[in-house]
Amino acid sequence: MARRKMSLHLMRRKTVNAVMLSLTGLCTFIATGTLLYILGYLFVHGGKNLSWDFFTKLPAPVGEAGGGMANAILGSAKLLLLATAIGVPIGFLGGVYLAEFGGNTFAYLVRYVTDLLNGVPSIVIGIFAYTLIVLPQGHFSTMAGGLALSIMMIPIAIRSSEEFLRAVPLALREGAMALGASKSKAILTVVIPAAKNGIMTGIMLNLARVAGETAPLIFTSLGNRFWSPGWEQPTASLPVMIYTYALGPYEDWHQQAWAAGFVLLALVLAVNIVARLMLSRQAHVIR
Amino acid sequence: MQAPMPQQSTEITSPQALNVAIPAEAKLSGESASKLSATSLVFHYGAFKALHGISMQVYANRVTAFIGPSGCGKSTFLRTLNRMNETIRHSRVEGEILLDGENIFNLDVSEVRRRVGMVFQKSNPFPKSIFENIAYGPRINGYENRAALRDRVEQSLRRAALWDEVKDKLQQSAYSLSGGQQQRLCIARALAVNPEVLLLDEPCSALDPIATAKIEDLIFQLKNSCTIVIVTHNMQQAARVADFTGFFLMGKLIEFDNTTKIFKNPSMRETEDYVTGRFG
To answer: What is the ipTM metric for this complex?
Structure first.
């Protein structure tokens, strides 16, 4: 009797185990499958429309076949460069302050506000930059777009820098201070170098994330069918180009949009992979 | 309970003490000039009083060991000797510690830490090369000349008995060394700024007996050139390396005397219970 009960119980356990295992497996499959599907779809549709012209030529006038998105690629690069130049130093130094000098209450407050800023919808940041720069200046510009993207970068730059600095063991700081280093000197010569790879990784992932932002750019850098010299003119960018071309009425525009999507995703993936590689090297440093 | 002052003892029992000149006014056998002198040292972590008025001497070119159960305050006291405890928030210190007659709380904190070096329980090499680890201390203290720096690195590694093992791989990461080598690297790093006192906070607790023996040999050699204070949980280790031993219990220094006396014939009941293993 006891034996029979036991085996019934065992069977129930085995069934539950099998069901749950299949369920978790299925969810994993859906999660990774979605990414693979997007990748494959973009590769098929975007890859076949990709040509050398795409990287070297300006968009063709409406009605003409061919042309490329060289101006959008350069525009995106300039926007990201500007965003990094503004957002990363602010985020990094803010992270250093939070991790090393912020008092408990104040640091908690700043962290909370940063998380809120991180949650602000990108379109709201677009309107903010529009009101702050585009309206007073009276024209769209690379400068405004870069600034909007930099605002998006700051919260993540702060938090990731802070996390990686905090991960540096207290023992290393104490080791430096026991040799006569001041706190600032210890941070500069031991803590930041120890966290360097992690911080760089954070910056790259951050960059990969804002590279695809579209909404803030529609309000700020707008778009441009030609080259945009300097920082004071509207500029084309890959995400806005995809948006415009995908919604356009022409079939060859759609093709170009696919190609642009493929290029953007390939760049983001490449940055991600490099960043992960760097982080795995960091893992050897921090025990 | 007040910490008792060193007890009278005229017998020369410590073998290391035999070959040194004893000053006329010596109270303990093997006593030399006072290098560090603590008077009524009280230390608080927030509301918790960790040290209840410690008064004691650390003698120059001698090894002084602190023993006692976990949480007795021996590490806390060690860390006040180079003002490392000040990095802890809400901590407060009272009393004075004289280093060669000067109160360390009136000196510049960087100078105190340069003169009173420290090696920690868990080896903590920087994520840099072996060379850069040793050169770190001299560099931040304004030592820039490359040739002089190279000499200083070699000399420090030799003093820590590590030179022969690492001389061909100075540019490799310090993490490529074994645990025992990493701890000797940390000792070499501390020695590179020529400290007058070296504080060792349970330096062998993570090491095997062979690595431990190497560090103990090292301590023996180093006391010619500096004063050593070591915190240890291992009583045999204290008995082997120390000239003087202090027994701590619940934030108080119960007894301080020649190591042989502490282990063979302690004056206080608590010390006897602890060293004979009846408690702790």
So the answer is: 0.84
